[in-house]
Each structure stands twice: as structure tokens, then as C-alpha cells.
Amino acid sequence: MLLILILSAVAGQQYPLLFTTLQAWFHDASVDVATVTQLTWIGALFSLKFLWAPLLDNVRLPLLHRLLGKRRSWLLLCEVGIIIGLAGMAFHDPNSSRLLLILYALVTAFSAATHDIALDAYRIELSSAPDEQTALASTYIIGYRLGMLVGGAGALIIGAQFGWSAAYFVMALITAVGLLAVLLSKPPHETITTDELLPKQVERLKDKPSFYRALAFLYSALIQPLVEFFCRYKGLGVLLLAMICVYRLSDQTMGSLAMPLYQNAGFSAAQIGSVSKVFGVLMTLLGGIVGSLLTSRYGVFRLLVVGTLLASVTNLMYILVALSGTEATMHYIAPGGALGSLAAGVIAMLIPLADLLHALGVTPLMLLATTIAADNLASGIAGTVLVGFFASLTSRHYTATQAALFSSLMTLPGKLLGGFIGLYVDLYGYPISFFMSTLIGLPALLLAIAVYIVARPIQQRSQQEDDD
């Protein structure tokens, strides 16, 4: 469990370094808000990782595979790539060499996304027992959030004291600890390889020219995992994948706005680091523990509904933070139509509440801490539940490919939408934007309820058949 914790921390450390911490660096370099939010698109590589995930199920790395096995060899290679990427970022600047900085960020993102694929497969293959998978999922979430603490608060503090280049170079050195964890970790249980599952009609192509062998590989690596999934769930597979696509859309969209809001509201880097990163991550860890306990008690399907509801509703609290900030964050223009009228009505009701909190002596920093506590607690619960849900959907025959597909479907819509949300802020302001991020969570809630009602019995039965 300790080594899983360390490997998960390495994975979690990279996310803020490529997202909120990088946004803070660009903001300090006086880059405009629209460009800062577009940095979210770097994270789109995490959402596209299903495209190369089959390589981790099928390709054996020379020499490393013989020494470490399939999963650990990929983990080691990816961590080397992360270290190179972070070190490269450390020697460039958003103003003088922005293109090179972004290129090294893409190297880091690609390596980190591939590391996520290998780590998910490694974690799932360590045990097939549901109770152990719940414990592994909880350990993964805790480690991931601790890593986010290092890459978030740690990098912000170092950046404020010694500069952003020093912060990213130190993060590269810290990542090197993961290399030792890979070398000390135990190999997972052996699983059936994709080659052993090739259908007869594709098997016959193995003796054909390389073009036909490539077709056989593409079929077995990309198509067959999807075929296997829909053979288990049939029409319900569409419902399951649709819910995964929108489940975290609300809080992912909000996440693109968070760092610009904090800085435009007048909070210092030290305040953001201590409240948003340290306190916020601790609350996420608490949410992960609560989510794990509730999942063990009530099951993953009920908690899917609770998780998406909490993650969406807590976004409304950020409207209070915006209304309690500066003129730049208070200003808003309601868009036309029924949704615009609804948004304006909700914000009009929240303005007296913001004034009351101010009259009672609640400072903007106290309000920010309360908001982050509620939001991160909800995020921890939702994240833990979703990790357990992914593990229950994944076939042991296609661990890396299917886990990467589920993860990509979860993050891609939020990454794409998050890159445009800065333009929405420029048009309508922060309060309207946070209200819309709450409203985006409604489809996820409805689909989670549908999954609970319709898909739960079939999913449990198919999982038993897969284990057999």
C-alpha cells in the first residue's frame, strides 16, 4: 500500500503543475485570462490517452520488460519522461520562450498521462477482491491528492520565494522518488494478454504481410476491448459511457476558473497555497476516506448519485467568493433567454447573503476556506466513488485499455469546455460562469440516477462472470 501511495503521489503531483500552478505562473507573467484558461488544453492529453493505451497492453519494452515486467517497466519509462519534461519547463519562461515551455509541458503531460494508464492497470491487477480494490482505490485517491498538495501548494510556495523555474526543477527532483518506488514494488498478478484473445479470423492474419498484421493488432488492441465491453453490457453500455462523459463535467469546468478567480479576487500566492492547496487537499483526503467508507456501506451506485449532486451544488458557493472579492470578480452581465434570467435571479438572491456574511465579520479568506472545504470534500467523495466504479467496469483481459478509455471519457469534455470558459468569463463575468458550471451538472445527476435504477443488477452480474 505504501508504494501505491508513492506512485499515486507521483501521478497527482503532475496535475497541478500542468494546470493551476502553470496558470499561476502565466498570470504572474501578465498573460491574459483567456490564454491562461486555454492552458487547460494541455491537459487534453490526459483525456486522449485511450488512443495509445493499447500499447501498454500489447508492447513489451526491450530489456525493461525482462527486468520489471509489463506494468512496472512502463511506469519507470514514464517517470523518466516526466522528469525530463519538468526540468525542461524549469529553464524557460512564459514571455521569452513560451513555445518551448509549452512543448516541454506537452512532454510532461504525455508522460504523465501514460503513467496514469500504467498505474491504473497495475492497481487493478494487484487484486481481484472487491474489498481490496476499495482499499486500493482509497489509497490511490489519498496518494494522488498528497501529490497534488506537493505540485500545488509546494510549487506555489517555492515559486513565490525562489521563482517558478526553481519550483519546477524541485518538482522534477521530487518525481525521482517514484523511480525507487517502481523498483521496490511487487509485480501484479499475471493476466491474459491480448494476443491470447485474438479471434480465429484475426489469428489467421498473423502469417500475412506486415500490413495485415498491423490490422490484426489494431483490431485486437482498439476494437476488441470495446466489443468485449458492449458484449457484457449491450445497450446499457451506452448509458454507462454517457454518464462517465458528464459525471465530472461540472467541477472540471469550475476548476478552470478557480485559479483566475483567486488571483483576480486579490488573494496572494501564499494565501492560495495555504487555503486552496494545503487545506483544500486535506479536505479532499477526508472526502476520499468518507467516500470509501460510504461506498463500502451503501455500494458504489448510490454514491454515484450523491457524488455528482454534491460536486455540482458546491459550485454555487464560488459565486459568494466572487461577490465578496474585487470589482473584477463582482461584475457580471446576465445573458439573454430563460437561463440568463434564472442565473440573474439566483445571483440576486445570493448578493444579500454575501452582504450579511461581510456584516458578520466573515472575511473573504474565511469564505474562500469554507467554499474550498465544501467543494473539495464533495470532490473527494465523487472521485473515490468513480475510481471504484471504473474498477468494477474493467475487464481483466483489457485492463489498461478500458481503464484509460473510461478515464479519458470522464476528462475530455471538461478539458474541452474548460478551455473556452475564460471567454465566457470575459463576456458575462465570474458569477454567471459559476452558476452555469453548476447547471452543467444536471445531466450527470439524471444519468447517475438512471444507472442506479437500470444498470446496477446487470453490471454486478457481468462483473461476476468476468471474475469467473
UniProtKB/TrEMBL annotation:
Keyword terms: Membrane, Transmembrane, Transmembrane helix, Transport
Membrane topology term: Multi-pass membrane protein
Principal subcellular localization: membrane
PROSITE patterns listed in its UniProt record: MFS
Subcellular location: Membrane
SUPFAM superfamilies per record: MFS general substrate transporter
UniProt-recorded Gene Ontology molecular function terms: transmembrane transporter activity
Domain Major facilitator superfamily (MFS) profile per the UniProt entry, residue ranges: 1-456
Gene3D superfamilies membership: MFS general substrate transporter like domains
Pfam name, any one: MFS_1
Highest taxon listed in the record's lineage: Bacteria
One cellular component (GO) term of this entry: membrane
Membrane-traversing stretches: 36-53, 74-92, 98-119, 140-160, 166-184, 271-294, 300-320, 332-353, 365-391, 403-425, 431-455
PANTHER family according to UniProt: MAJOR FACILITATOR SUPERFAMILY DOMAIN-CONTAINING PROTEIN 3, SOLUTE CARRIER FAMILY 33 ACETYL-COA TRANSPORTER -RELATED
Protein name: Permeases of the major facilitator
Source species taxonomy: Bacteria, Pseudomonadati, Pseudomonadota, Gammaproteobacteria, Oceanospirillales
